[in-house]
Design brief:
By secondary structure, the chain is α/β, with parallel strands linked by helices. The protein contains 3 helices and 9 strands; from the N terminus they run ββαβαββββαββ. The protein has a 4-stranded mixed β-sheet. The radius of gyration is 14 Å and the shape is globular. It starts with a strand and ends with a strand. The relative contact order is 0.24.
């Protein structure tokens, strides 16, 4: 998981890639979240993407990659369409409602099936530069 230190509009947002083992592990975690009766939070360690992966989106600039991803599914406390990304130097926090949790799971499954170059994010149509999409490579 990474973002580019760039002001170019096409570089806005976060980028995500996963190997088979990491993808399967995340799918299992998200499935447990979906089945849970209560709010869930998990923090996973993530690795810095390789130079090869960083070149895939075709963007230039320094990549910023946190060391941890915290996924929160506050079941019942947020709308199903909730999508929020917050980042600090070492951790990215992703808060998801039920529909967005399923959308993330579907996106990871697509990556494992070698489908990529797409994004998920909030259900808005806006030119707001603060909107944080997650691009899958």
């Amino acid at each position: 998981m990474w973002r580019y230190e760039s002001l170019k509009k096409e570089a806005l947002g976060w980028h995500f890639s996963v190997d088979d083992e990491g993808g399967e592990s995340l799918l299992c975690l998200l499935d447990l979240f979906c089945q849970a009766r209560w709010p869930c939070t998990a923090t996973v360690r993530i690795t810095r993407p390789t130079e090869e992966i960083l070149r895939v989106p075709g963007m230039l600039g320094r990549a910023i990659a946190p060391a941890r991803l915290r996924i929160q599914f506050p079941r019942g406390a947020v709308a199903d369409e909730t999508w929020s990304i917050e980042s600090a130097k070492t951790e990215m926090k992703l808060v998801l409602g039920a529909h967005k949790l399923r959308e993330l799971s579907d996106a990871i499954q697509s990556l494992l099936e070698n489908q990529n170059d797409f994004a998920i994010g909030p259900n808005v149509e806006s030119d707001d530069s603060n909107i944080q999409f997650l691009w899958f490579w």
